[in-house]
Amino acid sequence: MEGKKKRLLVLYASQTGNAMDVAERVGREAERGGCPSVEVQSMDHFDPNTLPSESTVIFVVSTTGQGDPPDTMKVFWRFLLKRNLGSSWLEGLHYAVFGLGDSGYQKYNFAAKKLDKRLQDLGAKPIIEKGLGDDQHPSGYEGALDPWLMSLWKTLNHVNSTILPEMSEILHPSMNKLEHPKFKIMYHASSEVVQHDTHISDLKDMKNMIERARSMSPSLHGHDHGEPHYLLKMVTNKQLSKGDDGRDVRQFVLEPLASVVEYQVGDVLEVLPGQNPAFVDAFIKRCKLDPDSYITIEPWSGERDAMDSYVNGSSDHPIQLRTFVSRAMDVASASPRRYFFEVMSYYASAEHEKEKLQFFASPEGRDDLYQYNQKEHRTVLEVLEDFPSVELPFEWLVQLVPPLKKRLFSISSSPLAHPNQVHLTVSVVSTMTPLKRRRYGLCSSWLASLDPNKNEEVLVPSWIHRGTLPPPPPMLPLILIGPGTGCAPFRAYIEERAMQNLVESTAPILFFFGCRNRDSDFLYQDFWLAHSSDDGILSEEKGGGFYVAFSREQERKVYVQHKIREQSARVWGLLNAGAAIYLAGSSTKMPADVTEALEEVVAKESGVSREAAARWLKTLEKAGRFNIETWS
Amino acid sequence: MALVLTDEVSLPLRVIRDLKSEGLNEEEAVVITQCGSLGGKLSFGDAFFGTVFVLLSKIDNLTDQWVSEISRVLKPGAQVLLQTLLVPDNQAKPSSQIERKLLISGFVDVQSTDGSQSVLVKGKKASWSTGSSFPLKKTAKVLPKIQLSDESDLIDEDSLLSEEDLKKPELPLVGDCEVGSTRKACKNCTCGRAEAEQKVEKLQLTAEQISNPQSACGNCGLGDAFRCGGCPYKGLPPFKLGEKVSFGGDFLAADI
């Protein structure tokens, strides 16, 4: 195995966090068994090009309800499907697959099944047969995981005893022993700390401080893209939706303070949300921490190789504890994972709390934990308040509190139309839990709370990234389908093309929008109407069109797919002239319904069969002329 | 502006005169002879010409690449005319060969006129607003060709599934719906268990219960993790017995 990485890599693709839980358990057990080098990574942080250089990989993948792989697996999976990889590309790779699925669905564990077969076709060798976790089983996926894991370790150990030198620890785990945390916290006297680390005198300092705080977080695994590209100020915060059905869609206009923001249409803005200071303070108080202390985070023991992805040099720049909590630890939004409850049980002094926590962490308690924790969107702070006798050392909190995640938004402006501004179209997320508690999305509600006139000093740490939708050239005819907030990137495309149309000839655009009714959520109504009249680029005179499906204005539901069928001749005309299709919006059924409608249009207008039309659309997708960007 | 293209070395002037009778109305024309030496590329921008006329001595010189180039330089809705001399021993009908090439590249309104010595094939570049008039003639069942690069050529992932995989999955064996308190209702439950599981029994709290909460079981004040299914205080933060209950709350949207 020349040149192969001598480590056990656990790659997971998780949608709701279960696959991540399983992957982390696999990693922990391997470490308990003395495996010299273990790495657990999410598939979207792994470059598939490097897969042939691995020697041993365990894959943990969920399958969603529609039989699809999780979003974090899409890019990796697409790569693996390339015809030109060849049947010996993964020669020398030993692997095992564990899938999480639900046998109540026809497409049971499809992602894991396809992955297992494809890996073999590419030349990799399975260590053991794939394991299939089933939600329908009385103990959920553990029913399959427990025996599968045991079989995996035994087989690995049999093949090569150096992989798990302390195999007995796995076979007969010392029950009441909690392993030590992976990191230790060093406290530094404030006199030690250099001036520029404490004082934020300008934007540059602030960007640097954010980067230092987040690069120190082990849960962010150094995958954080460094300093924010921009610190943006909110200049407009406008509600686009009217009416009282509880939906709140906003237009945010953001401007950089001292630099120029550069981007192109199709790009996404990544935002680091601010946390309510009251919650940050409550967390610090509950955990009996000193907010003003200066800390650095080091690996528990120097020798471990598993720290290779960890950004080093942190010991040179201690950070204030409060800053670290506020910028890197999600204390009042994300729910903790099962392992958090397990570790809490070791630190509970009240007997009834200890019992409850042990129950939650057990296979038998999984359902109850799900009801209490995930379904109720319990936050770390709430959990700590519900178990007041638990005193968790900061080391464990750093390791187990979910990291504060950045959020991505499609940019809905064109720099040609709005130089030096970034526009966003955002729905403020709000859900009602089973116990009737209202939960808001952390980032969307934080942005919505920023008043341009009052909160001038509040800045939005942001990064610009290329989106999955490539910017279309001016002469490419476009068919855009974006109901609801799916219209966000298309406002950008249309603004851009309208500007280009002033100086050169452009191809037409067909735009299909959908909403409930024109009085409540007809987002950007005036904008679309302006461009679809007076020979505008959305006008029928110019070969384009703008069609809206109002779902609730009549007895039966009318959606974008109905409008597409109505305009089948126009859609075919543009497709036949080489148009590209872009589809955006919240996931679930819309993309499948629209694809079906498009297949019907192609079949009807060209005279071919439905199957041929479906195949043609699939080829269009592979060729990059049928792009789908969805979010939940 | 018109483009006159020929693979011949020279072009008889009467051809240009004949073109006028075909309805060629352009004021100016670019004439290119020996186009075979151009390597299939024209140095004009997109949608440049109002008409393209091609005089072919050999049909084989009309490659797919040439057809796309011609399409590229034509304005939308504009016409291409191709004329070729009939060769006596040529088996295949030259007009249908040319027609097919035009159709595959997305030309519309394709028609040919077969003369005794030559054939003339006309076609129009698709114009956006004439999509609905796409002719469904003889070769109608052809879809536009899509070029795939090496990188975008993917295998069909459904081919990775076996017969077994595609069958309806078997639900795990369960002895009795009542086994274990955590047994879930079936997906297509008919006994009412699913409904019971969905319903969250929540009794309304009275003013008295809020200002002076008491608990017979002793668990109500401990927080949701310890409360029973029917506890009226479910959903509220933990509280001390006898002290007024706060609604904790969703002050997430409050001022920062």
Explained architecture:
- Chain B: Monomer.
- Chain B: Residues 217-231 are annotated as: Fe-S binding site B.
- Chain B: It comes from Rhynchospora pubera.
- Chain A is an alpha/beta fold.
- Chain A has 21 helices and 22 strands.
- In chain A, strands 1, 2, 3, 4, 5 and 6 form a 6-stranded parallel β-sheet that branches. Chain A has a 6-stranded antiparallel β-sheet with strand order 13-10-17-8-9-14.
- With 256 residues, chain B is an alpha/beta fold.
- Helices cover 18% and strands 18% of the residues of chain B.
- Chain B is built from 6 helices and 6 strands; from the N terminus they run βαββαβαββααα.
- Chain B has helices at 13-21, 64-73, 94-104, 163-166, 193-198, 207-211; strands at residues 2-6, 29-32, 49-56, 74-85, 107-114, 118-125.
- In chain B, strands 2-1-3-4-6-5 form a 6-stranded mixed β-sheet.
- The longest helix of chain B has 11 residues, at 94-104.
- Chain B starts with a strand and ends in a 45-residue tail after the last helix.
- Classes of the chains: A alpha/beta (632), B alpha/beta (256).
- At the A-B interface, helix 3, helix 11, helix 12, helix 13 and strand 16 of A face loops of B.
Please sum up the structure shown.
Chain A: It catalyses: 2 oxidized [2Fe-2S]-[protein] + NADPH = 2 reduced [2Fe-2S]-[protein] + NADP(+) + H(+). The complex is a heterodimer of chains A (632) and B (256). Chain A is of the alpha/beta class and 632 residues long.
